[in-house]
User: Fold this.
Amino acid sequence: MFAFRRLLSSHGSRLLSSLPSPVCVYPLVERQMKIAIIGQSVFGVDVYNLLRTQGHDIVGVFTIPDANGKADPLAVAAEADNVPVFKFPRWRKKVAPGQFEVLPAVFEKYNELGAELNVMPFCSQFIPMEVIDKPEHGSIVYHLNPAGSQRRFCHQLVADER
Assistant:
């Protein structure tokens, strides 16, 4: 099974109606992977639950900080399962006009988890390329807004045999 859409439909997820078209495709592996989820909202929760249902090891969830004392739904779901949750307000700092570098403390926390793949549903933060490229199998990055400025994310994924 290679199509993400077919995988989701077999589980009756409400994600199907909200996925952009064409749907991003990633050849699914037959073994469980160590996955870091970097994202937010109910869409992030659906992806989190689907990956756990598939038997993958969610090594950490990175989401936005609490807003007005209310935690993001993805953080709530992960905390209920005792999965480590990180709420960094930002991942990088500006070092010169147009130049940024990853925050060392943030990258160290991320790196300690040893993720083999990043899955980034509805990620609204600017994630450094050091994080996107770090896992052995790279990152799957997608966004729910196929008509907006984020539509380029739909095709940024790793589909090689690394």
